[in-house]
Amino acid sequence: MQTSFTATQLMDPQIASSEKILRACVHCGFCTATCPTYVLLGDELDSPRGRIYLIKEMLEQDRPATRDVVKHLDRCLSCLACMTTCPSGVHYMHLIDYARERIEKTYKRPFIDRTLRTLLARVLVNPGLFRLAIVGGLIARPLAPVFELLGMRRMAAMLRLTPRRAPAPPFERTGKVYSPDGKRRGRVALLSGCINPVLAPSTNEAAIRLLNRFGIEVVVAAGEGCCGSLVHHMGREDEALSQARNNIDAWTRELEGEGLDAILVTVSGCGTTIKDYGFLLRNDRAYAQKAARISARARDITEFLARLDLRAAGLSVPLNIAYHAACSLQHGQNILREPKDLLSKVGFVVKDVPEGHLCCGSAGTYNILQPALAEQLRARKVANIELLKPDAIAAGNIGCITQLAAGTAIPVVHTVELLDWATGGPAPAPLAELAARGASAG
Ligand code: SF4
Ligand code: SF4
Questions:
Q1: Strand order in the sheet with 320-323
Q2: Which of 6, 211, 267, 392 allows an S-S link to 216, with CB 3.0 to 4.6 Å?
Q3: pLDDT (tens digit, 9 = 90+) per residue, 261-297?
């Protein structure tokens, strides 16, 4: 694609990077076929190619984002299916990330939108506040249809997404070291993060048990917190970078102290962002090198487990598992085989979900900010999963787990919980009944 940036514009490193990406696009349109919003809406401006044009125009003309540009870019899930499909290697992720930052800086959103975004940015990254919000959501959940009738769709969506059980009680893992019983074969840091300890502490509990069982010492680095992903996808770059720097410092202390073989992440949305710290902080003299070093160590937990020799303890029931590939894992990190191979290896029957490349509609805060599209995508995903008649759904991202669980009665669990169970750990809570039935039949 031809571009017409001025020499002065190109002196800005963000514009220079974006220009390189824009030039790689050859307008072929292959990406439109796999873009969930284009599939649903059929509008070129809601396709990757259309959005690339909108971004190009906004940047070249160096003008504030318009309402129309914001509408179409807000509808993008950042699912990155377009990147997997693109034959020319267009790095759409970096382009849309920068466009979101520009929108945040140049466009004044309506008051309600602004307030909601600020609230999400404050509450979701703070486990204490998030816990309170979940309790409030649990109480107000029955009012979701009323909010819907009043036209407050985002409020209704938030309430519907609230899990039906109380949040986990606070339990501080940061600064703790979990040592294996036998010989230590490695040492890793595990991201505790912000949402996971409140919504699904069982995921990291399973990860720690599993890693310890196979000789890996686990540290949850003192001082770590949210990876920055949630605010990054809302274009709040300063907040995102400050959260990234905080985690880089926390992990660097461990790296330079007792050492780390890897930094493991059980939320694939966070993993994609941490692997991108090197790029995000490339122009920060104090952090560029440290950030690149942290990104190079970051691994999804299944990537790391695939290197270990996991041995099955013998499941009492053979279970059919529908594997839901989170976009951030399959498109963002190119991790396709590892989770499925691991599950098969320890005794599960793994089934691929039809239209597996399409997003479930979760996408960070998308299911709150764009509820209509997110609900359509979830309905489509759930229908595809239910065709398989699985006993459970496995996924590697808390966002997808929450999104799917709100739309189906089939238990949804993290891949690592199934792996822990199959190698000697307890059955994941949503499968406890099934496991007990299997044990009594056996
Ligand atoms: S990131 Fe996803 S929603 Fe956005 S343009 Fe690409 S395929 Fe479409
Ligand atoms: S597939 Fe790649 S090169 Fe083709 S239009 Fe989409 S982004 Fe551009």
A1: 349-352, 320-323, 392-395, 412-414
A2: 211
A3: 999 999 999 999 999 999 999 999 999 999 999 999 9
CA-closest candidate to residue 304, choices 332, 272, 266, 269: 266
**pLDDT grade, residue 442 (50/70/90)?**
low
Q: Ligand 1, from 31, 32, 34, 37: best to mutate by most atoms within 8 Å of Cβ?
A: 37
Find, among 96, 108, 113, the residue nearest to 53 by Cα.
96
Residue of the CA atom closest to atom 7 of ligand 1: 35
Q: How confident is the model at residue 27, as a pLDDT? A: 94
Q: Tell me how far apart the alpha carbons of residues 32 and 157 are, in angstroms, rounded to a whole number.
A: 27
pLDDT in tens, 142-196: 889 998 888 888 989 888 888 887 777 777 788 899 999 889 999 999 999 888 8
Q: pTM of this prediction?
A: 0.95
Output the CA 48–ligand 1 centroid distance in Å. Answer: 6
